[in-house]
Amino acid sequence: ALESQRMTEPISPRLSIATMKKYLIGGQSPIQPRDFIIKELQRVRGNLGPQHFPLHEKPDEASYRHRLERMEALCANLVPVVMTGVYWGDEQYAQLWKRCVETLARRERTEGTSYTPWSSLQYYPATLVLYAAGIAAISKGSYSLLKLLLEDSIGKDFLQQDLIDEYPIWQVLNAMSCF
Question: What is the tens place of the pLDDT at every residue in 69-88?
C-alpha cells in the first residue's frame, strides 16, 4: 500500500487500464480500485477549475480548441479506466462510477463575467466519462448501472453565492450542452 502511494509520475492510459484490470480481476481488496479511481478523479478535478480554465477570457476558435485538447489530455487516463472498471467490475463499484460523473458535473461558482462557451465547456470532462461508462454498461448488459448513471446521478451548478441548482445528469451532459 505504501509503495502504491509513492507513485508521483503520471502513468499512461494503457498502464492505467492494466492496473485497473489487475485490481478488479486479481481478487484483491475492493479498496485498491476505489483508491486508484478516487486519486485519478481528484487529480482531474483539481486541474479543471477556473484557475486553470478562466471563464472571463474572450473565446475564439484557437483558444476553444486548445481548451478541448487540454481537457481531453487531463481525462486521458480517467475515461478509459472508468470504462474498464464499469465493464469488468461488479455492482459493488456502481456508486464509485456515479461519484465520478457527479464530481465532474459540478460547475464552479464564478465571480464577475463569464462567457457562455467556457461555462458550458466545464461539462465536457463529465460528458466524456459518462459516455464511456454508458457504452461499457450497455456492452456489459448492465442496464441498472446505466439507469444509475443517467437518472440517479445529480449535477450541481452554483448560480449565486449560496444558491445551488441541482438537476439529473441526463438533462445537461450531452454534446449539445458542452458545445
Answer: 999 999 999 999 999 999 99
